[in-house]
Amino acid sequence: PLVSAWSIDLMGQLSSKYAGRHGVPHASSLNELLQLWMSCGATRTLMEIYAQCLSAMISSCPDACVDALLDTSGQHSPHFDWVVAHIGGTFPGTIISRVLSCGLKDFCVHGNSSSFSSSSCAVPPDSLFPGCPDKRVPKIGSVVGILGHLVARHSASIKQELLRMFHESLCPVQAGDGAQASATQKATVPFLLQLAAMSPTLLGTVSPELIDSLTPLVLNQLRQHFTGTPREEAENLVSLIVHLICQTGSGAHRILQFLVNTAMPASVIMAPSPGREPVHESAREACDRIVQLLLLNLQKLVHNRSPGYGPTGLSGPMCHGEPCGRPVPFLDGLRPHVDDMCSEALRLERKRHVWLHQLLALLAVYHGASCATDCLCHMLSQARSQEELGLAVQLHNALAPSMRGLLPATVGKCLARVHSASMSDRQIARLLGNLALVVQWERGRAEVEGRGEGGGRRGERGEEVGPCQSGSGLAQAVTAHLRDLSRLLLHPDPEVCESACLLLSVSPVPRSAGPAELSGAVRAAAGLFFLLLHRRRRESALGHCLNLLTGLGSVSPAALKAVLQHLVRAALHGANRGLFGGGEAENSSPGMDPGLLGPADTHSSLLDVNLKFGTAVNFAGSIWAVFHAGVIGRGLKAAHKGTGLESEAGDEAYNVYRLINLAVRCSSNVRVQGENRGESPGLESDQPQPIDPEAAKMVAVVLVETLCPDVTNSELSWPPEEHSKNTVERDIQIRKRFEENPLLFDLLHLVALGRPALCYCSVLLRGLLATLMAHWEASRDSVTSASPWHLRASCQLIACMGQGQLLPPALSNMHEIFHKLTPFEVHLLLLSVWEYLRDKGPMPQKFTFSPERGQFYRDFSRDGDISKYLQVLHSVLHKNIATLGYLCGRFQV
């Protein structure tokens, strides 16, 4: 003991004597000071002597050596701390506990003279955040330096010793321990808090394990431990705890969960677990106050930074430049757990979601654009109700004033996550549906403000849950990503398709969209329309698709032409014919868009297509292209069978009505009022809407291009009857297409509504009329009802030409008597129609626009006397006067 005391005292004198010399590091630089003294031979020899003495006495009487070490440390601190740190690294188990014990005793001594407490030992209130702890509390600064030096290699021992001191201080004081032991126990928790405040390293080391050890039993012990503490002392301790939490980075999320779970009010639904002691109400209230003070302190730290502080990202007053303020470790530690915090906030549990919502707003402001968009994106993809979605809207409203461009950045990140396959199909559908709902809130708010009424809808707690305060900002941000959203219209999951369609249908189509974007959107929307018909989806999904296509067609004439072209071509394709009462064709039409094929076409074999008759070799101009009836050795061609996609008769009629109604809406350039308000869009009015002649002309051109690709629009004149012999092949193909597609007659009626657009379908009308005339001429039946399709086609053809004013009323009414005539008589009547059209060709120049009626009309009085074209009709009426006499008045000029 004498040698050890001599060596340690000599090192203390040397350390103090040469502490102020030039080149000697300050006492706070413990590592540099240790390296300097250990490079000196004399001090290194003294250190080795003391270490040998301590190793020899460690098992028998270590107290003598350690007491001498600590006494010398008290005399020459802080210049002597390098010796204690080196010895502690050699004998950690002994030195760590002794250093802490010595620091606690010194803390009690200095605390007695303060105004913090006149009877207990604690830290003075004005030294909770000491600017120079070495002057205020001499020993605690040395303890912090020594433990900070040892924590790199002996963190487990330090952690174990600190937790031991904490739990021992909560144990009841024995009767014979005296007042000093009680005072020491009272001062232990403030001492440990002061250590953590002065050393962030020690705070990060012990905080995770400390949180795990704070069970309800320990919390109740803490409550009893500080019962009777003066209010001022308690407030100082709470302030110190809040400060320490703000400075804690590692384990920040665990600390937050502990605080929120403990501060949550007791539930009357869920009883506490059996065998587990419940948290006392006063402890819960104390934790509630800590949470509130923590949020207040974080708010001051975040918003009191200089205006240039913040991560780069959005152009805002707090979102440019490099960080120049003090960082907040607690918020840094919460950054990786933003998604978990958003999910917990959406649970809407009493106070929990309010606290977490405030904390998420602070996190977003502190970390900038990246964190803000992450929060909004996660909440939008996880919200399952309007109340939950309202939290995302409130968060945006809180962040929007300080972050310009937040909505476009959020939408962009959401779509980036969608296309990166990091979200499930259900989450994608929920995200798109929530975005659509917010856009509808925006539109509803705009309408209410336009009427001068009050604000938005309110939730259960009276807070406004929608809509956004950014006007139409979200709708504009959505339409800026028209290309990305259009790709989702043909997503394999039906719910994703319908949600994407809903979002696009409630958002205005940008007028500045390029041709490529519009073309892709039109193609995908038209494909979705037919997929919905195949799937027989609910009415609302079809209504949204109709609204989307109508909106796309209203952007420009080119977009309208693209919509009509895709609709007509896809409707006439073999995979979709069954929807409208037609049969599947033997081979697909040339030039079909693969994106509009039905479900059955996606698995077609290229080899099977190439093996089909007429695919590889063009037999045009030969009899085999017209009269191909089968393959030698295999018999006649089999009748067309259904593909399994045909609907029932009622569904077919409904599908036809849907398609024609869509074409009428697009052609009329009229958006249905009340769309997306729970009504059935597209079925509001039975009155025929006015058809734009240019749109009807587009439909006519598409029909001609689809059925007769080799015909130009210049073939409008009607040739003599003999000329039909040169177009037999083409006429038969036209007749076959009409027979396979009953929808073609409905499309012709649609074209006829937009006079004079039907003139551009002359080649189709000629081909169909020629084949019908040939059929009735060759028919040997006594009644026309023996050929039902030809009778129906003849009636619809004449009615269509009458509706388009290609025929005068006297000739256009003749289809009313076809069912009561013989086939040859029908042939004679159709021949008179041919002669009229040949002499009075269906030319657009013969139509005049009427401003009063708002449409074109044809004045048949300019064509001269038409009685010669009615002679055959009058003869047929005279022959059948017994049955048709009452109709003679309808066929007079």
UniProtKB/TrEMBL annotation:
Pfam families noted in UniProt: INTS5_C, INTS5_N
InterPro entries recorded: INTS5, INTS5_C, INTS5_N
Basic and acidic residues: compositionally biased ranges: 449-464
Span of domain Integrator complex subunit 5 C-terminal: 139-884
GO cellular component: integrator complex
GO terms of biological process kind: snRNA 3'-end processing
Residue ranges annotated for the Integrator complex subunit 5 N-terminal domain, each copy included: 1-108
Chain intervals for the UniProt region annotation (Disordered): 449-471
The name this protein goes by in its record: Integrator complex subunit 5
Record organism: Callorhinchus milii (Ghost shark)
